[in-house]
Write a structure and sequence with these properties.
alpha+beta; Ubiquitin-like (UB roll); 3 helices; about 25% helix; globular
């Protein structure tokens, strides 16, 4: 029997506040891959009551295995990755 692949999502700042989580495991679809651009809609579907999550994810950047993603549309997750939601920060 094949093992289901998954990714680990790390939530920080507003994303953590919205979901009430700092980390979660998300399975990769049976196809064996998940385009990074599809991840926001999966996270939103997993947290339908998370206040403002859609807006937070739209304004956030992504980090995969501690490296910032410059072109999320070109990234396909295969399983085993650690994906961080990096919310915008404002200074004062």
């Amino acid at each position: 029997m094949a093992l289901s692949q998954s990714i680990t999502i790390l939530y920080f700042a507003a994303a953590s506040t919205s979901t009430g989580l700092t980390t979660e495991t998300v399975p990769i679809p049976e196809s064996g891959s998940l385009p990074l651009n599809d991840l926001p809609k999966i996270l939103i579907s997993r947290h339908p009551n998370a206040s403002g999550l859609n807006d937070i994810l739209e304004s956030s950047q992504w980090s995969i295995d501690a490296e910032m993603v410059e072109e999320p549309e070109r990234v396909v997750l295969k399983g085993g990755e650690e994906v961080a939601v990096i919310c915008p920060v404002s200074g004062g």
